[in-house]
Amino acid sequence: MRKLMVAGNWKMHGDRALAGELAAASRDAATARVDVELVLAPPFTLLATLAQALAGSPVALAGQDVSGHAQGAYTGEVSAAMLAEAGCSHVLVGHSERRQYHGETDEQVAAKFIAAQKAGLVPILCLGESRQEHESGQTEAVVGRQLATVIEAAGAAAMEHSVLAYEPVWAIGTGLTASPEQAQAVHAFLRSQIAGRDVRIAGLIRILYGGSVKPDNAAGLFAQADIDGALVGGASLVAADFAAIAAAAPN
Ligand code: PGA
What we know:
This protein is an alpha/beta fold.
């Protein structure tokens, strides 16, 4: 049985006041649902505040991005070891906004995945197709390529200590969600790609769905066999909504 994960990606939002509010709500949600793993991915500047506010709770912290380099002259970047020291156990890699606005390639995403694991972090590897790729029927080709580049670089065994997040770009922040059936089909495809390399890991790996997940559509998504949780953007900034999404997990 895979433990459901609900992760909140705050993107470039939030301040200390909001961090306090969301930490309190997440602590309560984690107490109410010990069977759901909660992860918060705030901006780097709020990691220390949250590490303190979440101390002693099972709520995990994630970076939103990480350097592919261990250290050095890379102004503006943050290494995996720095994230670990700041209290992170997880990190998002390859979010579509990084790929789209910062030109991150599949190879760079793979380097970040490897750097994260070297520092003991669990990478949450984001995969997803653009609207145009979706409309031209390239979804499997695109997410398959994004995943394969990481598997080739890191090795199939590395997938055991990772989480996947399928986030169709056309559904992020648009209010358009993939239907549960559409998402399920892509999740099953991704799991089959892992199974082609390692059947045991394919059974263990969690595949989150992201893209306009809200309290009213979460249960339908979680009911799908291959959807193991959610990567939540906008709704993770509203304490009641984030808690409601965790509560929508099947018991
Ligand atoms: P959204 O964002 O829930 O606001 O669509 C999801 C994400 O980008 O991780």
